[in-house]
Amino acid sequence: MRLAYAASPNLILFASFIAQDLTTMTNSFFPPIRTLMGPGPSDVSPRVLGALGRPTIGHLDPLFVTLMDEIKGLLQYVFQTENALTLPVSAPGSAGMEACFVNLVSPGDTVIVCQNGVFGGRMKENVERCAATAIMVQDEWGQPVDPEKVREAFKSNPKASLLAFVHAETSTGTRSDAETLCAIARENGALSIVDTVTSLGGIELKVDDWGADAVYSGSQKCLSCVPGISPVTFSPRAVERIQNRTHKVQSWFLDMQLVMGYWGGDSKRAYHHTAPVNDLYALHESLVMLQEEGLESAFQRHRRNHEALVAGLEAMGLAMAVSPEWRLPQLNSVLIPEGIDDASVRSSLLNDFNLEIGAGLGALAGRTWRIGLMGYASNTANVIACLSALEAVLAGQGYSLPTGAGIDAARQQLAA
């Protein structure tokens, strides 16, 4: 052991840091321990946090290149794809979204964009910033994208070359039929861009089987990793479109032809940017954990805890905002009862119980709460703790509800 320390000065520094009196670190930031049950980020496993703190190595170190290959293979497993162009963008899900649009959309293109929540609107913004035309297919917030409206949009706009939609709309807790929508795009000779930020790892997603062409996600939701990484995957059809572009991609950083020089499968990697090495350790660990559990088991866990939470909420007299067949098990949208102060409830949950839930967005602001059961946070203890805390806070605001009914209903559901 003495020899190991003598050869590793970093270990000596680390040991001295641990030994010092933490109370003297007046300028350091020490966050409280929260239970994150909002729309993201979700709770991060201690295994993932442990991976984050491993020694940093260079982003071109041969060992790190090996890790990059492993991450690519694990992402292919989670996306259920064999796409060669599968990688983690070194930025959050919004950058993954932009990467898909700037690489596939050129000036003058026509893109059909589906909107049934906030994030369809962001897709429209991306299309317009690419100097293309967005044909909007609008559906009520809390309802899935209507495939018939999409078919009609293609009939009315035969030059449309892309279809963009959100698989799991984070702002409403609603799932759309991605398989059908991708099929409609292909029937019309168009490529599909699919937002799976909230769905990846939480519900079924089969990129290859469904024929999705450009798919992006985020690390901080059902993957239970730290925020700041956006997994993406592009089909061979999408890669062909990228390679045949006549205009430069408007973003240098997100140009997939440049990024692939670094993330490509060849043994020699071309420098593109300094990858977030420690964040990628964390992503790798979260993907390993998901592979160990198995996708189907993860989906079943999310479904089981969702059903228990819903049983408890309904026993408390609360109603869900989305019909059962389109609800996301990982993101539960709950209608706020009449006379209850939205912000006050969330503030009490945070300050008194260290429990975070989300507010409604856009058209649902002030009308719904969004309760996440994502990844590591999707467990029985969180379901019971959330119901207990919510009961106490609602009772404190004068909301009449049967004491303990929510927890009893959840436990019965879990035992079924």
TrEMBL record:
Single GO MF annotation: alanine-glyoxylate transaminase activity
Domain Aminotransferase class V: 58-360
Record family assignment: Belongs to the class-V pyridoxal-phosphate-dependent aminotransferase family.
UniProt signal peptide: 1-21
Record: residues binding substrate: 370
Organism: Parahalioglobus pacificus
BP GO terms, sorted: glycine biosynthetic process, by transamination of glyoxylate
Protein name, entry field: Serine--pyruvate aminotransferase
Protein's UniProt keywords contain Signal: yes
Keywords: Aminotransferase, Pyridoxal phosphate, Signal, Transferase
A Pfam family reported for this protein in Swiss-Prot or TrEMBL: Aminotran_5
Listed cofactors: pyridoxal 5'-phosphate
PANTHER family cross-referenced by the UniProt entry: ALANINE--GLYOXYLATE AMINOTRANSFERASE (PTHR21152:SF40), AMINOTRANSFERASE CLASS V (PTHR21152)
Modified residues (N6-(pyridoxal phosphate)lysine): 221
